[in-house]
What we know:
The protein is mainly alpha-helical. Helices cover 52% and strands 10% of the residues. A three-stranded mixed beta sheet has the order 3-2-4. The chain has a two-stranded antiparallel ribbon with strand order 1-5. Helix 9 (165-175) crosses helix 10 (189-201). The two termini are 29 Å apart.
Amino acid sequence: MPNDSLVWQSHRSASSKLTLRYMFTDAVTIVVGNESGASKIFTVHKALLCHHSSFFEAACKGNFKESFTNQIHLPEDEPIIFDDFLQWLYLGAIDETIDVGYTHWWDRVIKLHILGDKLRVIEFQNFMIDLMKKEVVAQFKRKDRVLPTWDRVAAVYDATTAASELRRLIVTIFAYQPQLPTFKSVLPQDFLFDVLTVLKDDTPVPHRVSQQSLFETKMRQDDSFHVPGSV
């Protein structure tokens, strides 16, 4: 787990002013989770949600029942993950010390990125990508690498398309391990093919650049693995 900061801080420009602009606007009710599991009701400023999320903008302003009932249901999502998203939405940061309900650091950040993808919040997706890149580089230096679990890898491929930047990041992380872990047969075939493709295309030229240097260069590029279209 990251240990150099207690808060994952966004560099969103003028986020506080943007949030204050919507503090006295109408609210919408978001019901996250379902009756068979833990569910929670959130009350969120509608204009703030719609500003950042084209998903919520369509739900609130389109010709859908949600625009008339002023209530949106997200039965497939987890309240604890949505709560993290709201921290970012209002504060521009996520408190990483709140780890109750997470089995693994990667479990949390991957679920957050997938939620951002679903809600179509590009800035939030790139925020999570930057956190992952920073942590991976720190792990390489500490030599205490912690990889995403296989079920998280499968979840990424289940929830994303072939063009996903999250897929590309996860594949690159595995491809640049000093020793590749033993892959399980339950993994998506697309993932195995993608790893082999990176290994083939990014093999460093002998005596000119090390594998670790090439990896760190990829991770340190500001817009590497970013979803295009952020403001």
